[in-house]
Specification:
Aminopeptidase; 6 helices; about 280 residues; eight-stranded mixed β-sheet; 8 strands; alpha/beta
Length: about 280
């Protein structure tokens, strides 16, 4: 099913059978035709996409997970930023709700073409709101069916981006908003899988603690637990143009990804195995 507006499907939601929703807010690659003239030629190549995550997570349907995927690029609007555009990481370089810079710090738009206040509000209405309506609605449905919901916010990023962070990122960056967005047992289960795999560096609540989606929707007191995974793209693809998918690399990390998601499901089931649901 899709949330739609005048420009067509803004996002696609596949409903699953287990209490897990996987959101992929930055996999969109399209920029609407009516907006393209304001962007630099480089921007139209959407280099900062979370490339190929749908392919990397191709095992999700067999797990019974719900999946939410947008159509449009984060360069149009960033679905993982708050609607008031408050910085996610105060004191660090941040990209905005309607980004004006590449991850390199270079400008996205031609001179005097960045969206003004009215244009940003229109993009929020056209593209941001439908995605979040779908996300909130699916979490509500899952809670009604299962008594609780597990949200996995899937991301990927180049392993070294000096404008955003120093040095090289750990391979797997797990975020639970410093423990606020998910029960500790869920984070511990995910980290245990990473440790058992033994071949991927990993960190909990490091540089990436979870963006707006993790922080806003992760409400353990209301039986919704959210985890963000920001993984380095060199685990499964070429980090430079043409950003090609590498199936042989991907095959090495996919079992760990699947085990992480199964660990979330198992931890959730253990939390809610009693009748009280008082966690």
């Amino acid at each position: 099913m899709s949330q739609t507006d005048a420009s067509g499907a803004v996002c696609a939601l596949t409903q699953g059978t287990v209490p897990l929703l996987v959101s992929m807010p930055h996999i969109g690659t399209q920029i609407p035709a009516q907006l393209q003239a304001g962007y630099s030629a480089r921007a139209l190549q959407v280099e900062d996409t979370d490339w190929h995550l749908a392919q990397l997570y191709d095992f999700l349907p067999s797990m019974g997970a719900s999946i939410l995927q947008p159509r449009y690029s984060r360069y149009v609007i960033d679905l993982n930023r708050p609607p008031d555009d408050a910085p996610m990481y105060p004191g660090a370089s941040n990209t905005e709700l309607c980004p004006t810079r590449f991850f390199t710090g270079d400008t996205l738009y031609l001179e005097a073409c960045a969206p003004d206040t009215a244009a940003r509000a229109q993009r929020c209405s056209d593209y941001w709101q439908p995605y979040h309506d779908a996300l909130a609605g699916e979490l509500q449905r899952i809670v009604q069916v299962h008594g609780y919901a597990l949200l996995w916010d899937a991301h990927s990023i180049r392993s070294a981006i000096p404008w955003l962070f120093e040095g090289t990122l750990p391979a797997l960056n797990i975020g639970t908003a410093s423990g606020d967005s998910a029960h500790a047992s869920i984070a511990q289960a995910v980290m245990a899988v990473c440790a058992d795999a033994g071949k991927f560096s990993h960190v909990l609540n490091g540089r990436f603690k979870g963006g707006y989606i993790t922080r806003y929707y992760g409400r353990p007191g209301q039986h919704v637990h959210a985890v963000q995974l920001e993984m380095c793209q060199n685990l499964y693809m070429q980090e430079t143009p043409p950003f090609a998918y590498d199936a042989s690399l991907a095959a090495q990390v996919q079992p760990t990804l699947r085990a992480m998601l199964q660990a979330v499901l198992d931890a959730g089931a253990a939390l809610y195995s009693g009748a009280g649901h008082d966690h």
